[in-house]
Amino acid sequence: MKNKGLGEFEELVLLAVCILKGEAYGINVKQEVEKHSGRSVLLGAVHITLYRLQDKGLLKSEMGGNTEKRGDRRKRLFEITTQGMKQLEAAQDVRQKMWSLIPQLNSGQ
Amino acid sequence: MSSKNPPKLANWLLSKMVGEELQEEFLGDLQEIYEERLSAKSKVFARCMYWVDALHLLFGFTSFKIFKTQNNNTMMLKSMFIIAWRNAIRQKQFTLLNIVGLTIGISISLIIGLYVYHEKNYDNFLDQTNNIYRVNQPNIWGDWTEMSSTTGPNVADALREEVPEFREVTRILNQGSQFTSYKTKSGQVLSFKEDQLFWAEKNFFKVFDYEMLLGNQETALEAANSMVLTETAAQRYFGLDEALGQTIQMREWDGSSKSYVVTGVLKDLPTQSHLQFDVLTSLTSAKEQMDMHGWKWIWTAFSTYVLVDDGADVALINDKLQAIPPKYAPPTTKRIFNQSFEEFTAGNPWKLDLQALPDIYLSSDPPFNSFGPIGNKQFVQVFMAIGLVVLTLSCINFMNLSTAKSSSRAKEVGVRKVLGSLRNSLIRQFVFESVLFVSVSTILALVIVSASLDWFNLLAQKELTLEPVLMNPVVWLVLIGFVLTLGLLSGGYPAFYLSSFKPIEVIKGKISKGQQGKTLRNGLVVFQFSISICLIICSLFVQKQLSYTSKIDLGLSDENVLQIHNIEQFGFNTEVIKSKLEGIAAVTLVGKSFGVPPNVMTGDRYRSTEPDAQVFQLNNLRVDDDYLNVLDIEFLAGRNFEFERPTDQYSVILNQAAVELLGWTTEEAVGKHVAVASGNEDEFEVIGVAKDFNYHTTRQAIGPLILISDKNDKVWDYGAGLSFLSMKLNPQSIQTSSDLKRVLDQAESALNEVDASIPFEYSFMDQAFEDNFRTEQRMATVLNFFTLMAMIIACLGLFGLAAFSAEQRTKELSIRKVLGANTGQLTYLFSTGFVKLVIVSILISAPLAYWLVSLWLEGFAYRTPMQLGVFVLASLISLIVAILTTGYQSLYVASRNPVDTLKGE
C-alpha cells in the first residue's frame, strides 16, 4: 500500500493534523477540515481515515489530554510521521509540477 | 431521559461492539460533540446526531475487522451481504415498504411491550415484595360479592392475636386532605394542604422498607405526634439539612391545631407503587380516636398488610383467617346495629382474603384503592392484544412481500444453480437476506422508540423508559430470538421453494411466476384488513361512547356551577360566607352541600318505618335548602327543604331509585318515614321525591340517594366531613375569561375576609364530570394512533402486493388493451380483485367488532347505541383507502403503451 498515494480526503485530514500540531484528535480534526473545505464531515469518517492513515504509517498516536467536558475520558492525539510528511510533500510536488505545465494564458490575446 | 446525558443505549452498543482500546476516545469524542450540539442546537438534533455518529463509528470499526480477516467464512458473509444489498437497491420500492412496515410494527409492539412491562411491575422494588399481602374483605356496605381493600381497625388486632404465622401486621389509614403550617426561622408562616397523608403504625417500615434518608426506621413512627416526610415534602417546608426535629402544625376538625415532630425523611417513593403518600404520621397520635373506635369492624377506612415468612403456605393461612370475623365482628354488629353477626351478614360470608402485593395494582377485584393509583387490567389486556396484532400484521406484510418478490428472482436462482451453486448456499442467502431486513428494522425501531418515548409518555401519562429494560439480557435474547424467528419464517418459504427449482425449467420460463402462494397471500391480506377494519370500528365506537357519556342527560344542570372547597374549615357557621358570596353580581344562587356530584360517595343503612321493613344501603348527601335549586333538580312529588318550617330540620328527600328500592310509588312516598338502621333509629319524614340525577360517575346507573338537611343533628356524622358551597353563575355575566377571573377573585376575597389562612380551592361541576373519563380519553387517543398505524401497515402490504401484481400482469393487460379494452375498463379489472379482498375482510370483521364493542360497553350503564352507520363508515374508509392504494398501480399499468411492454416478446 505504501506508494499508493493519498486520497483527497486523506490529504485534508493529514493537513489538518499538521495544522493542529500535536493537539489533533477526532473532533478538532473534523472541525478543521470543515472549516477549510466548507463541507460537513461525519465524525466517523474522520476516525476511520485517521486509523487508516495510522495503519499506513503516516500518522502515529498516543492517548492523553483528558478533560472534564468528555466525562474525563482521554483523547487519542495524532501526530504526523516523517513518512507522512514525505507523502504530503510528494503530493504537493506532483500538483505543483502539473500546475506549472498548464500553458499560461496570456491576457490580451 | 435526562437532557444532559447522551443516549445510554448508543453508548452501551458501542461498548459491546467496539474494541476496548478504541472505546475511551470514541465515547469521549461523542460526548464532547454532543454537548456542543446541545448548546448550539436542539436536544432532538443532538440526540439524533449522536446516534448517527455512534452507528457510523460502530459500523466503521466493526466491519473493518471483519473484512480485514480474509478467511472463507467472512468472504462468504461479505458476498452474501453484497448480494443482499444489490437486491435491496434494485427493488427500492419493495425494500422501502418492507423496512417501513416492519419498523412501524416493531416500534409499536416495543412501546406497548414497555407499557405492559411497566404496568405489570408495580410494587416490585421492596425487599420483601413477595412476602407482603394485603387483607381484603367483602364490601359490607353494598355488594357483598365485591371485595374491598379496606377493613376495620380491629382486623389488624385480631390478626396479631390469632395468626402467629404473620411476622408483622400493620395498618394504614388515608387521612384525606389536611391543612398544615410551619413557622420558619424568620417567623414567616407557611401553610400547605397535604393531600396524601397516612396514619401508619410503628412497624410500617418493617413491612415496607422504603429507603430512609434521615431518621431511624425502627423508631420514627413510634412516639405520638411524630411525622415522616418524603424528600419532596420536606423540601417544601425546610429542606433536608435541618428536617429532623422540626415542628409542623396540623389543623384539627375543630379548628385547633396539633404539633407534629419530624422524625424521618424518606427518599421519594417510586411511581410504580400502589401506595403514594407525602406524609406519614404515627397512629399513636390518634390515640383518642383509636381508643374510642379501635374495636370496630365497620370503620372500614384502614388497609391492613401482613408480612409472612419465606415459603409460608399462604393458602393454608388464608383458610385459617375465615374463622376470625365470626369471632371478632359480633360486638360491632351488636353494639352498632343491634343485630347478630348472622343477621348483619344476611348469609353472605364475611371472609378475609390475602392478596399478594404485586397483584394489587392490576387487580379489578377489589376495584378501588384508597391509598394510591390503581391500574386498569382491561387497558393492559387491550394494548397487549393490539401490540401482538400490529406485530403480526407487519410480520405478515413482510412475509407476503418476501414471497411475492422472491418469485421474480427465479431466474437468478436458475443461473446460480447452473454455475454450480449448492442448494444449501441458496437457502442460506435467502434466509440471510430476510434476517438482515428484520435486524435493520429492529435497530431502526429501537432508535425510533427511544426518540419518541418522551412523546408517548406525555400522551399516556406514564414514565416509561427504554434504557433500563435494554440492560436486561433476557430482553436481548427475546429480540434476537424474534429477529431469527421472523427472518427464518419469512425467508424460509422462498428459500426452500425457490432453491428446489430445476434450473432448466426456470430458464426456459416454465415456472409461472408468482402464481404459487397466491391464495396464501390473498388470505393474509384479508386477515390484515379484517384486523384493521375491526380496529377502526372499535376506535370509532370508543369515541362515540366517550362523547355519548359526556352528553347524556345528567338530570341536573352542571353548567356554570362554581364549587368552593374547604368550607368545612370555616367551622359550623358558614352563613356569613354564603351571604357574602350571594352578594357577588354574577352569582344567582348559593347552596351548601357535604359532597358535590360526581363525587358523592357517602352512604349509610336505612329502612322504612313500616313493620318488618328490610334494611337498605342508600347513598346520602347533606344539603341546605338552596343546594337542590342550584342544581336545578326536578321534583316528582312533594317539595324541597324550606328551613322556615322548623320540622324540615329532620325531613328527608329521596330520589326515584331510593323510593323504588324501599318499595313505594312516587305518590305514596311523601309523608312516609325513614330511619337510620343503626344508632338510635330516629325517624325522618319524607317530604319530597326528586327526579333521578347523576351524583356519581356516569359510568354507573343512578343509585338510591337520600338527601338530608345539613342542619339535621340526629345523624351521627352531623357537621363532619368535607363541605362545599356551590354557586350558580349567570351565564350572561361570565362571557369572557376575565369576567370569570373577576368572579373568582371576588369569591376568594370574600373567603379571605373571614379566614385568610384557609386555601381557596374551586372547581366547576361540568369539568369534574368530564374528568371522570380522563383515563378513557387518553387511552382513546392512544388507541386511535395505533389504529392508524395498523391501517398504514395494512396499506403498505396492499400497495406492495398491487405493485407486484401490476408487474406480473403488465403483459396480460397490454394484450387486452391491444384487443380493444380502454384504460377505464383495465383499471376496473385490475382493482376489483383487491376490492373483493377488502369486502371479504369487512364481512369477517364486522361481527367480530360487534362482539368486542358490546363486550366493552357492558361496563357502562349508559351505552351509545350500536349504529349500523359506524360499520358502514368504517367499511367505506377501508374501501376508499384500499382503492386509493391500488389505484395508482392500476392506472399506471392500464395507461402504459402496449408497444413498450410487449416488444420484448
Radius of gyration of chain A: 17 Å
Q: What name goes with the CATH superfamily of chain A?
A: Winged helix-like DNA-binding domain superfamily/Winged helix DNA-binding domain
Describe the sheet with the most strands of chain A.
2 strands, antiparallel
Structural classification of chain A: alpha+beta
Protein name (chain A): PadR family transcriptional regulator
InterPro entries (chain A): Tscrpt_reg_PadR_N (IPR005149), WH-like_DNA-bd_sf (IPR036388), WH_DNA-bd_sf (IPR036390)
Domain Transcription regulator PadR N-terminal (chain A): 20-89
Pfam families (chain A): PadR
Helix and strand topology:
The complex is a heterodimer of chains A (109) and B (905).
Chain A: H1 8-20, H2 26-37, H3 43-55, E1 59-67, E2 73-80, H4 82-101
Antiparallel strand pairs in A: 1-2
Chain B: H1 8-17, H2 20-40, H3 43-68, H4 72-90, H5 92-120, E1 132-138, E2 147-148, H6 154-162, E3 166-174, E4 178-183, E5 189-194, E6 197-200, H7 204-207, E7 212-215, E8 226-230, H8 231-237, E9 247-251, E10 257-266, E11 279-282, H9 287-293, E12 302-308, H10 314-321, H11 324-328, H12 330-337, H13 341-345, E13 353-356, H14 357-360, H15 377-406, H16 410-418, H17 423-460, H18 467-470, H19 473-499, H20 503-508, H21 518-551, E14 561-564, H22 575-582, E15 587-593, E16 603-608, E17 615-623, H23 627-630, E18 635-638, E19 651-655, H24 656-662, H25 666-669, E20 673-676, E21 683-690, E22 705-709, E23 724-729, H26 737-754, E24 762-764, H27 765-771, H28 774-818, H29 823-857, H30 868-894, H31 898-902
Parallel strand pairs in B: 6-11, 8-10, 17-22, 19-21
Antiparallel strand pairs in B: 1-2, 1-12, 1-13, 3-6, 3-12, 4-5, 4-9, 7-10, 8-11, 9-10, 14-23, 14-24, 15-23, 16-17, 16-20, 18-21, 19-22, 20-21
Helix pairs in contact in B: 1-3, 2-3, 4-17, 5-15, 5-17, 5-28, 15-19, 15-21, 15-28, 17-19, 21-28, 21-29, 21-30, 22-26, 28-29, 28-30, 29-30
